From TrEMBL, chain A:
Family: Belongs to the GINS4/SLD5 family.
Keyword tRNA-binding: no
Domain called GINS subunit: residue spans: 88-162
Cellular compartment(s): Nucleus
GO biological process: DNA-templated DNA replication; double-strand break repair via break-induced replication
Keyword list, A-Z: DNA replication, Nucleus
Descriptive protein name: DNA replication complex GINS protein SLD5
Organism (species): Bemisia tabaci (Sweetpotato whitefly)
From TrEMBL, chain B:
Keyword Kinase: no
Compartments in which it is found: Chromosome; Nucleus
Domain named DNA replication complex GINS protein PSF1 C-terminal: residues: 143-194
Name recorded for this polypeptide: DNA replication complex GINS protein PSF1
Species for this entry: Bemisia tabaci (Sweetpotato whitefly)
Subunit composition and interactions: Component of the GINS complex.
Lineage: Eukaryota, Metazoa, Ecdysozoa, Arthropoda, Hexapoda
Length: 241, 196
């Protein structure tokens, strides 16, 4: 394609799209209109937003958070359909690259989110499995497949370490639970932004025994120890930044 | 001195933070032997002494036991940290290890690696209601769709997603889609050309 032709194409394209900024929410909304989503509350941009927030939270907290596999699965399906749609466009269509790059960005967020979770699962396998066992079926933090993964990973490691333990004298040839438990450090400090106004958040004072009350107002930002806001992160009233 | 060898093992591992040193079977066996000797000596003391003069031997018993525990702890740390490195290599090199790396692994570790690959693959296959998602791709936030890369080795032909076949030759420059060359860059076959 010669340069002139390309320029004409770009101009045409820009004229067609009066708002020349191509943001993903628009891209996804276009897609949605085609598919006529029956659930107005969970359109693709909203789901993407939820995933982005979950990804940030997961990235910035030391412990594993409740899984969002429903959203991730839905978003992933969406990406696949869109990629399918893109491949149907003529190969010299200028939109292909732009769409593809946006899709790659979403792909990155999803894979990164799942990777971070896997890393945490691998690191704190024992503790996570122990806590999962105590949670009810509806309140599981790991998705079904992640749980499977955690179990087989633990089994694998125990098998490997047992090969050496077997050769040790009998009185030291086992590992106690507490010897192998790795816990995340929940006292690390995090930057938070509150989504809702609420008071009655008590922060233990490092120097004394007294607790200090912190009032959260909407959109206010704080640096706080993670364990004092962990519940708020899980119920989505606070966003880690 | 007791436990010296076990500490040496850990030091050896610690000295190569980025690579995996060869599995030191001789040393591991030496540590295990030392543990068995310590144990036997303790058992000997316990069997030969009568209960009333056991107090005399208590310090030495305790000392040997502490040495045993330390040996065990060092060995566990050695094996565990090697596993962590091998895990890292699964993410860097993919399912097949380069032969020079593989030769540094013990047989049990190769086994572990293969099993780990298997459970990871199973998990990746299950994402997205069975569609499968390769978590080894999209490791960095994408800045552009295409990367300019230089080929460092004669790799041969690779197949692109759209079915095109490209022959990678040494010292040639290519402009390839990110998804096609991400893994090859990590394996050291391609090198990203940074242009400013």
């Amino acid at each position: 394609m010669c340069l002139e032709e390309a320029l004409v194409r770009v101009k045409k394209y820009l004229m067609m799209e009066t708002d020349s900024s191509i943001d993903i929410s628009r891209l996804l909304r276009d897609e949605d209109e085609e598919n006529i989503s029956d659930d107005e509350e969970f359109t693709a941009p909203i789901v993407l937003n939820l995933i982005e927030n979950a990804w940030l939270n997961e990235k910035l907290s030391a412990e594993i958070l409740p899984h969002k596999s429903i959203y991730v699965d839905a978003m992933y399906q969406q990406i696949l359909t869109m990629e399918d749609n893109i491949s149907k466009l003529p190969s010299d269509d200028i939109r292909i690259d732009i769409y593809q790059l946006e899709l790659d960005r979403i792909r990155y967020i999803i894979t990164s989110y799942l990777r971070i979770r896997l890393e945490k699962i691998e690191r704190f396998t024992k503790q996570i499995l122990q806590q999962e066992a105590q949670r009810s079926v509806d309140d599981q933090y790991l998705s079904f497949h992640e749980l499977q993964y955690a179990k087989s990973f633990q089994e694998l490691n125990e098998k490997h370490l047992n090969l050496v333990l077997k050769k040790m004298p009998a009185n030291v040839a086992s590992l106690s639970h507490s010897q192998t438990l790795i816990r995340p450090n929940l006292e690390h400090f995090v930057f938070i932004r509150s989504r809702v106004s609420q008071d009655g958040l008590f922060i233990p004072d490092i120097a004394g025994n007294e607790e200090r009350e912190v009032k959260l107002t909407e959109n206010s930002q704080f640096i706080l120890p993670y364990n004092s806001v962990s519940e708020l992160v899980k119920n989505n009233s606070v966003q880690l930044i | 001195m007791f436990t010296e060898k076990a500490v040496d093992l850990l030091k050896e591992l610690d000295r190569c933070p980025d690579t995996l040193p060869p599995y030191h079977e001789k040393m591991v066996r030496a540590v295990l032997d030392e543990m068995n000797i310590l144990f036997e000596k303790n058992v000997e003391v316990l069997n030969s002494s009568v209960s009333d003069n056991l107090g005399e031997f208590m310090p030495v018993l305790k000392f040997r036991h502490a040495a045993l525990e330390r040996n065990k702890r060092c060995l566990m740390a050695y094996f565990w940290n090697r596993l962590l490195k091998i895990r890292q290599m699964r993410w860097e090199f993919g399912r097949i290890l380069p032969p020079d790396v593989k030769s540094n692994l013990s047989e049990a570790e190769v086994n572990w690696f293969n099993n780990y690959s298997k459970i990871l693959a199973n998990y990746m296959k299950s994402i997205g209601q069975g569609c499968g998602l390769n978590l080894l791709q999209n490791m960095d936030p994408p800045k552009s769709l295409y990367l300019e890369v230089r080929c460092l080795a004669d790799h041969g032909e690779i197949k692109m997603e759209n079915g095109e076949v490209i022959c990678l030759q040494k010292n040639h420059l290519y402009l390839l889609p990110r998804s096609a060359c991400e893994m090859l860059i990590r394996q050291g076959i391609l090198e990203q050309v940074v242009s400013f």
